[in-house]
User: What shape does this take?
Amino acid sequence: MKKYLLVAGIAAALIACGGNTNEKKENADASTSSSTAAADDKSKNPDYQKGLELIAKNDCLTCHKVSEKLIGPSYQEVAAKYENNEENVKHLADKVIKGGQGVWGQVPMTPHAGVSQADAEQMIKYVLLLKAK
Assistant: This one.
């Protein structure tokens, strides 16, 4: 009986020590993960904030969603297709203003002539920030 209690006690001590090590590792992983998430938080980017505000003011969400295709492609699909550079920002902003058809299928994107070039570029900067890593 004493041997059984001794073995059970040693086993309990090993389990307790082993669990503590994993807990520390999990806490360290969680801390690293939250630090990385904070560094990758795109919502703190001024281009993200201003672009999101402009998209909400316009009719963009009638045809587009962030991660799902609706009538038009999702913003993440657009971000995956186009590199985030000044040339693409201007090109896509022109498509927002003038409309277009054929790149994403036969459903045309209606022109948004009332949107300024600067605002359209700001909205595109937001969209291109949504590129999945």
About this structure: The two ends are 59 Å apart (CA to CA). The CA atoms of residues 5 and 11 lie 10 Å apart.
